[in-house]
Specification:
Blueprint (H helix, E strand, L loop, with lengths): L2 H8 L9 E4 L4 H10 L4 E4 L5 H11 L3 E6 L3 H11 L5 E5 L26 E4 L8 H8 L11 E3 L2 E2 L1 H12 L2
Parallel strand pairs: 1-2, 2-3, 3-4, 4-5
Antiparallel strand pairs: 6-7
Length: 173
Amino acid sequence: ISINFSRTLLKLRNKFSKIVALTVNPTDEFLFEIKKTVAPDFIQLHGNENPRRCLYIKKQLNIPIIKGINVENKNNLMKLTTYFEDVCDILLLDAPSEALPGGNGKTFDWSILRDFKSKKKWMLAGGLNIDNIKEAIDITKAPAIDISSGLEEKKGVKNHKLIENFIMKCRNF
């Protein structure tokens, strides 16, 4: 969404909501504008940022960082976890994609995450929906999830009933 539209959404924020500014390869100028205008609780980096760039952003903005990581296999997971867990506050483990960096509705082999341990908090993402969330959590033991396209009626349009049904299903685990 645009920074201008975020101003409208911020007026609807309740005291329990956390704001995550999801970005893909943002410029410094854009990040400072987000900080000034939106004042997010977290910056999510879901592009090609390396650990040095993540650390720079974290120090410059003084905002916790969520880093999106594409999970291809166990070796790739361990390598990227090692790179980013000392720099970022939360790791978001997502499905690789050739199209968009996230929100593609694609899952990955969740068994890669069996017995996964990290020094940092982590979240599961990638193709999660009401039909597969229980299996995903049963396999991965994910402490948190990030769901996007699984709650959409069409690309970019969330469905309130899907959101409500998803929450109710998760509460019954």
